């Protein structure tokens, strides 16, 4: 009499889980597909299967423990026949492993979310400062209106794929392994379109250019990214659409340089206004204004206009406009201008030079 417990390498008090674990290990080790041409392994594999077929069944195990046979009457059930063959045992204990690895034989193609789209938008500094609304054209795939997205002509419903029987997957047994792959006939959909729609050629969607209105908030800067939900590509098999992302790029301005919420504007003035003072017209984001220049203004001096800069996105506070003075020295002089400047130089030229010479002397002498 064969000792089934000894064949599986377990004790007589082994639990069903211990029996299953022992069988799995031995079956993988001695399976003929892994030991091609090895007669000893083949015989060992048969013994392992015979032993487990008996001990895994509570009634057969009880008879075996009492009478030494599975049926209590000395009947030999050996080999693969006793438990319906090794294929049943394989599917029972190992099928779940391969189904999880391959995705299972009954999984159809899933609905998937549509792709996100990107649009690069250029704005002037003024548009970025105060916000604006623009209409843009976005090419994207949309549901075919002719067939309502079904892909079938005349409203006919798709039929079940006869190759995979609607599963969307094909399962193949190759020796010791079960392999699943997407059905090549229906591409995983499980259904076949018999009469494709003439408009979309059975795809269920077509490419259109859609006009989208975009509200740009005040205060945006280059690299600001705006998201428009559900304005991207159409999802497949009923999946949700993707999103549209607007990437902002703010153009350089001829008058203003931006620094965060502040703007800087270089304003040239004549040397006479710098010396005597007066009013000059300057540009701002809202229009032109006049500011007062005090006498004795130096080149590079700064004037601040509160609240004339840019706002923070979603906020109410605004930055400032900084006016930087640049004294414009003429390259060519009229005869009268030259006479007047020479007269001015004769009055204070030596005084200016003397003050500078005294500073230089003090630098070197430490006075």
From TrEMBL:
Q: Output the SMART domains linked to this UniProt entry.
A: DnaJ (SM00271)
Annotated CR-type zinc fingers sit at 131-209
Alphabetical list of InterPro entries matching this protein: DnaJ, DnaJ_C, DnaJ_domain, DnaJ_domain_CS, HSP_DnaJ_Cys-rich_dom
Q: How is the cofactor bound?
A: Binds 2 Zn(2+) ions per monomer.
* Entry's localization field: Cytoplasm
Q: Which residues form the J domain?
A: 3-68
Could you tell me which residue ranges the CR-type domain spans? 131-209
Spell out the HAMAP family in the cross-references.
DnaJ
Q: What does this protein do?
A: Participates actively in the response to hyperosmotic and heat shock by preventing the aggregation of stress-denatured proteins and by disaggregating proteins, also in an autonomous, DnaK-independent fashion. Unfolded proteins bind initially to DnaJ; upon interaction with the DnaJ-bound protein, DnaK hydrolyzes its bound ATP, resulting in the formation of a stable complex. GrpE releases ADP from DnaK; ATP binding to DnaK triggers the release of the substrate protein, thus completing the reaction cycle.
Q: Which PANTHER family match?
A: CHAPERONE PROTEIN DNAJ (PTHR43096:SF48), DNAJ HOMOLOG 1, MITOCHONDRIAL-RELATED (PTHR43096)
Can you name this protein? Chaperone protein DnaJ
Task: State the species of origin.
Answer: Candidatus Magnetobacterium casense
């Amino acid at each position: 009499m064969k000792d089934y417990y000894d064949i599986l390498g377990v004790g007589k008090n082994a639990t069903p889980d211990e029996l299953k674990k022992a069988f799995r290990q031995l079956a993988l080790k001695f399976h003929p597909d892994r030991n091609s041409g090895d007669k000893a392994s083949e015989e060992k594999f048969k013994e392992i299967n015979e032993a487990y077929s008996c001990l895994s069944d509570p009634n057969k195990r009880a008879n075996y423990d009492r009478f030494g046979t599975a049926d209590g009457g000395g009947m030999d059930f050996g080999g693969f026949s006793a438990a319906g063959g090794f294929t049943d045992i394989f599917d029972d204990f190992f099928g779940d492993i391969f189904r999880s690895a391959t995705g299972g034989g009954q999984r159809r193609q899933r609905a998937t979310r549509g792709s996100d789209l990107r649009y690069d938008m250029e704005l002037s500094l003024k548009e970025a400062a105060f916000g604006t609304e623009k209409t843009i054209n976005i090419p994207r795939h949309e549901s075919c209106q002719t067939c309502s997205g079904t892909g079938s002509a005349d409203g006919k419903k798709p039929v079940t794929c006869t190759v995979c029987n609607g599963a969307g997957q094909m399962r193949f047994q190759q020796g010791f392994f079960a392999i699943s792959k997407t059905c090549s006939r229906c591409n995983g959909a499980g259904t076949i379109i018999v009469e494709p729609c003439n408009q979309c050629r059975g795809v269920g969607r077509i490419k259109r250019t859609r006009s989208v209105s975009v509200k740009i908030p005040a205060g945006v800067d280059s690299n600001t990214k705006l998201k428009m939900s559900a304005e991207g590509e159409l999802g497949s098999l009923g999946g949700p659409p993707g999103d549209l992302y607007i990437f902002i790029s703010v153009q350089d301005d001829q008058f203003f340089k931006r620094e965060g919420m502040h703007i800087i504007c270089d304003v040239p003035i004549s040397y006479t206004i710098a010396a005597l003072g007066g009013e000059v017209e300057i540009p701002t984001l809202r229009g032109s204004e006049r500011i007062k220049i005090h006498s004795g203004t130096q080149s590079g001096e700064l004037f601040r206009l509160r609240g004339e800069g840019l706002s923070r996105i979603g906020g109410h506070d605004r930055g400032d406009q900084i006016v930087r003075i640049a004294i414009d020295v003429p390259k060519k002089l009229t005869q009268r201008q030259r006479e007047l400047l020479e007269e001015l130089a004769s009055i204070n030229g030596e005084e200016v030079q003397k003050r500078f010479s005294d500073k230089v002397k003090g630098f070197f002498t430490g006075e």
